[in-house]
Design brief:
Radius of gyration of chain B: 22 Å
Number of strands of chain B: 19
Oligomer: heterodimer
Strand content of chain B: 15-25%
Largest interface: A-B, 51 and 66 residues
Structural class of chain A: alpha/beta
Number of strands of chain A: 7
Number of helices of chain B: 16
Shape of chain A: globular
Low-confidence stretches of chain A: none
Distance between the termini of chain B: 63 Å
Strand order of the largest sheet of chain A: 4-3-2-1-5-6-7
CATH class of chain A: Alpha Beta
CATH superfamily of chain A: Aconitase, domain 4
Order of helices and strands of chain A: EHHEHEHEHEEEHHH
CATH class of the domain at 296-460 in chain B: Alpha Beta
Number of helices of chain A: 8
Strand order of the largest sheet of chain B: 5-4-3-6-7
CATH architecture of chain A: Alpha-Beta Barrel
CATH topology of chain A: Aconitase, domain 4
Strand content of chain A: 15-25%
Mean pLDDT of chain A: 96
Mean pLDDT of chain B: 97
CATH superfamily of the domain at 296-460 in chain B: Aconitase, domain 3
CATH architecture of the domain at 296-460 in chain B: 2-Layer Sandwich
Distance between the termini of chain A: 33 Å
Shape of chain B: globular
Structural class of chain B: alpha/beta
Helix content of chain A: 25-40%
Largest sheet of chain A: 7 strands, mixed
């Protein structure tokens, strides 16, 4: 897993609420036995026409999309299935951060496990960001804040909370499995009494 | 006196290998790990990468369900996989199970089926267990008073390797459904009513315990339908305290203790119910008698109406987009919608009672000429029992297709598709855009409603059907 500390870059906004994992990566792309190249199928049914060609009018096909590492999406992002293919597809496409006012439970933990940073902001902050398509912001995991300069020139620094262990692992690019390994004695003792 | 505990507290506490701290998650032990072909390959890769085996293969159980064709093999024994990749995925699971010594219910198993149908049938699912699977509908198993939830593939690797998971304790919610459901209102309708009330994200961060007279009155298959749909309100796990209904279902199942040992286990299971003073982070009361059969009209399972009610007017951008995708307008009668496809099946409604309910509607009737109807049993056991009752003949005689078990058209990754722009009334769990095939439009409903709609050829309720003469 790639470490994440701090990132400055333009945001890409997807306004829809309740973007589910079937949109992020439709089920027909789940038959692969690895995650290689899965980013090519991100939002396939929104982004690609029936012959698989990119629809030029879709925001994810604009040239800037590949240089926008921060996805800002409507409320309740990532609901639906447990497919880890969803955060892998977002990473594969080039996103490192997903910001919303709510992020679904399984998607959030999957993201943290594979190195995509999920950030949940307050509704008003999120609403402001939703109006800032293409603007540059800074997401700082060290300080747990999002720095934004709005159109009126005002600078904002919005704190966010994240599970401390997920933060610890993301900051260092640590595989959570190592922590499980350290619990081996406790596992053995649990199994003896089970 | 110790602190009163909820069912969830009891399950959580009894599986703590290592307590949660301010900076680290809890380590919890997993009693049953269910595995299928789609979300496991990269989990097994982790084992190979680390050079380790499966810690507890006997607590791991695998089946083929998502990528499997529902049409039979040809005369050469060749199965009609949708793609070469699908076939390869199935072979990969077979290879992994062989390499790591895991019990796999392959094509030749009399128990193969959708993972959430098969586990309970085998009695592998038991009260008091922690159960995980790389599949969000793992919540189904909570019907037995287990803590069961879906995990990602990285976590599948963790459980294979260490039989444990890193978790923070979720919040708890109890939903009390008081009174009895009216006749003709099914577990599916109850679930759709609850999701409509909570919204598709109202359960996010919670584990839900279902309680109250209406829940207690459900049989095990109904309870599984209810718990199955918990994730559609955003909650990872739903659960119901074990009672006599649970015990009676499990007695004699292959993997439960037998004889006296079963009675001892059952006595323990009955102790799992929430203590009378247990505290929940959120508690909700709903009235069952006010509930009616429901059907979805939008693109999330929370967007449903009572059958007979018009499509509500769009009140937000997302709602408007959903109606546009579905081809509905606010105020429109659902019954105006011509139905192209009807799907009976899935881990939500692919059990014997679901097939019986649909067959009862279809017996002596024909489906409308323009409707294509697929009936897909949830498992080989369901198929066998249904065929022994002649249900397959009822479906075939009515004009429906009787298929082999699997997830099939619920998520359409095996080639069982709803075409672009087509409307399907489906007993499955998700009506997301394109869920049943690119451009497909899904209306979620009970088996009864789905079968009635197949007969009428438009969105219909049971009472729309002409009464049949007796003895037909």
């Amino acid at each position: 897993m790639k470490a994440f500390t701090k990132l400055t870059g333009p945001v890409l906004v997807l306004e829809q609420e309740n973007i589910d994992t079937d949109q992020i990566i439709p089920a027909r792309f789940l038959t692969a036995t690895d995650f290689d190249g899965i980013g090519d199928h991100l939002f396939a049914d929104w982004r690609l026409d029936s012959s698989g060609e990119p629809k030029p009018e879709h925001v994810l096909n604009e040239p800037r999309a590949s240089h926008s590492p921060i996805l800002v999406a409507g409320h309740n992002f990532g609901c639906g299935s447990s497919r880890e293919h969803a955060p892998h597809a977002l990473l594969g496409f080039g996103f490192r951060v997903v910001i919303s006012s709510q992020i679904a439970d399984i998607f959030r933990s999957n993201s943290q496990n594979v190195g995509l940073l999920p950030v949940v902001l307050e509704a008003d902050q999120h609403a402001t960001l939703m109006q800032m398509d293409g603007e540059e912001i800074t997401v700082d995991l060290e300080q747990c804040k999002v720095d934004v300069r709005t159109a009126d020139g005002a600078e904002h620094s919005w704190p966010f909370t994240i599970d401390p262990f997920a933060r610890h692992c993301l900051l260092r690019g640590l595989d959570r499995f190592e922590f499980l390994n350290q619990a081996e004695d406790a596992i053995v003792s649990y199994e003896e009494n089970r | 006196m110790s602190e009163p505990e909820s069912l969830f507290d009891k399950l959580w506490n009894s599986h703590l290998v290592q307590e949660q701290s301010e900076s680290t998650p809890a380590v919890i032990y997993i009693d049953l790990h269910l595995v299928h072909e789609v979300t496991s390959p990269q989990g097994f890769d982790l084992l190979r990468e680390k050079g380790i085996g499966v810690r507890r293969p006997e607590l791991t159980l695998a089946t083929l369900d998502h990528s499997t064709p529902t049409l039979p093999a040809n005369s050469d024994g060749e199965r009609p996989y949708y793609t070469k990749q699908a076939k390869r995925q199935v072979q990969t699971l077979r290879d992994n199970c062989q390499e790591f010594g895991i019990e796999l219910h392959d094509w030749d198993s009399p128990y193969r089926g959708i993972v959430h149908v098969m586990g309970p049938e085998l009695g592998a699912t038991q009260p008091g267990m922690t159960i995980v699977c790389g599949d969000s509908h793992t919540s189904t198993h909570g019907a037995f008073g287990s803590l069961a939830f879906g995990i990602g593939t990285t976590e599948v690797g963790h459980v294979l390797a260490r039989q444990c998971l890193l978790q923070n304790k979720p919040k708890s919610m109890r939903i009390n459904v008081d009174g009895m459901l009216p006749d003709g209102v099914t577990a599916k309708d109850l679930a759709l009513n609850i999701i409509r009330y909570l919204g598709m994200n109202g359960g996010t961060g919670f584990v839900i315990e279902y309680a109250g007279e209406a829940v207690r009155s459900l049989d095990m298959e109904g309870r599984m339908t209810l718990c199955n749909l918990t994730i559609e309100a955003g909650a990872r796990a739903g659960m119901i305290a074990p009672d006599e209904t649970t015990i009676n279902y499990l007695r004699g199942k292959a993997r439960v203790p037998q004889g006296e040992a079963f009675d001892q286990a059952a006595a323990k299971w009955l102790q799992l119910a929430s203590d009378p003073d247990a505290v929940f982070d959120s508690e909700i009361k709903l009235e069952a008698p006010a509930m009616r059969p429901a059907i979805t009209y939008g693109t999330d399972p929370g967007m449903s109406v009572d059958i007979g009610e018009p499509v509500p007017p769009a009140d937000s951008v997302s709602h408007k987009k959903a109606l546009q995708y579905m081809g509905f307008q606010g105020g429109q009668q659902m019954s105006e919608r011509i139905v192209d496809v009807v799907f009976i099946g899935s881990c939500t409604n692919g059990r014997l009672s679901d097939l019986r309910a649909a067959a009862n509607v279809l017996r002596g009737r024909n489906i409308a000429g323009h409707v294509r109807m697929l009936v897909v049993p949830g498992s080989e056991s369901v198929r066998r029992q249904a065929e022994s009752e002649g249900l397959h003949d009822t479906f075939s005689a009515a004009g429906a297709e009787w298929r082999l078990p699997g997830c099939s058209m619920c998520l359409a990754m095996n080639g069982d598709l709803v075409g672009p722009g087509e409307t399907a009334v489906s007993t499955s769990n998700r009506n997301f855009e394109g869920r049943q095939g690119k451009g497909s439009r899904t209306l979620l409903a009970s088996p009864e409603t789905a079968a009635a709609s197949a007969v009428m050829g438009y969105v219909a309720k049971l009472s729309d059907l002409e009464p049949m003469e007796i003895n037909r």
